[in-house]
Each structure stands twice: as structure tokens, then as C-alpha cells.
Amino acid sequence: MAPLTLVIGNKNYSSWSLRAWLFMRHAGVEFEEILIRLDTADTREHMDRYGPSGRVPVLRQGELCVWDSLAICEYVAELSGRGWPRAPEVRAVARSVSAEMHSGFTTLRSLWPMNARARNRRTAVTAALEADVERIDEIWNDCRARFGEGGPWLFGEYSVADAMYAPVVLRFNTYGAHISQAARWYMASVLEDAALQEWLQAAKQEPWTIDADEVG
Ligand SMILES: N[C@@H](CCC(=O)N[C@@H](CS)C(=O)NCC(=O)O)C(=O)O
Q: What pTM value is reported for the model?
């Protein structure tokens, strides 16, 4: 297999990069990483060297270019045979909650930007933000109750869905979301995860700050 290279943004701020990187770690595939610093005068020029969208993450494997977090997870799931529940009906739910994250929760994503190393930030909680938090709480409760028997993750074993929601866990941790007990237990599993801890340690070491993402 040709080597894999994952192009990512700042570990402190790039939530889409985290999703792809975390899933690749859990899938057990080897990869090199290239970090492009976000929010600089030449960020776009650097990104254009690797992919067509002017965004990260991008996965390169020789001539192959995959330029979206969920598409990267799908490709790596195909390479590794890991990442989606075996039963088609359960897999369909895992894909639904992953897609719901990928295409939604815009209020949460804009009012509570991922800032992995920040703690004890507080913002005004609008009705739309509260609705996003409640829906995510519901998803986590539902998946854990119906499919979580075999392990600590949303579908028991680690899946793409866990990678998709990991940045939400970091946001809830930073901004102090009010969530149910079951959701807090799920958050604890995510925060204890060794791969996520590795990412967080690296995020702490980064010297760069993006003012627009320093909220609360
Ligand atoms: N739908 C894309 C979104 C990727 C995205 O928006 N990435 C952000 C970083 S988290 C980005 O590259 N923004 C461009 C920039 O900051 O210059 C995905 O899922 O990969």
C-alpha cells in the first residue's frame, strides 16, 4: 500500500482535522502528517499544494487526493476494515449520526469554536445553541442505550461516529455544556482516550493563537 499522508491544520483549532486524524489512529493505519498553520497570509497557498478545496484535512496517497473529513474516514474504513458497525441496520444509524454532525450543528460550531486547550470559557447560551446541545445529548444517549453494550463508544466499538463527535466533546469541556449524566460518562471515555490525549498534548505545545476562535 502506498504511504498515507494526512494534511491537517492547527491541532488546537482544527476540528475537521481532528476527526480524520483520530479515526486514522483508531483504525491503526500508519500515516505521516503535515501541519499547515491556519489563519496566516500564506495558509491558502500551502493548502493549494495538497488539495483543491482550500481546506484541511486532506489525505494523500500517491496521486490519490481525498479532501473532506468524512470522505477520509470512509476511505480509511475501507482500507482498514474498521470504523463502521457490522450489522447494516446499525451501520445505517452510525452513518446517520455521523452525517448529522458533518452537515449540521452550525450554531454550536460557530458560537463554540473548538479551542482544545481552553478551559472554563463561558458564553451566552442562545435557544439555538441549547437546541444543538440537547440534540447531541439525545444522540449520545440513544446510541449508547441501543448499541453501546460492547464497549464505551457510541456503537460499542470505536467507530467513525466517535471521531465525528470528538471535537464536540472538547467544545462541551471548554464551554461547560449542561448535559445528562449518560452524556457526561460518554465524554469521560472520549477525554481519556489515548489518541485524543496525544492530540491534546500537541495542541498545548502550539504557540499560535487565532483571535476569532478565542471565545468566552
Ligand atoms: N467539510 C470539510 C470542512 C473542512 C474545513 O472547513 N476545514 C477548516 C479547518 S477546521 C479549513 O480548512 N478552513 C480554511 C482556513 O482556515 O483557511 C471537511 O469535513 O473536511
A: 0.98
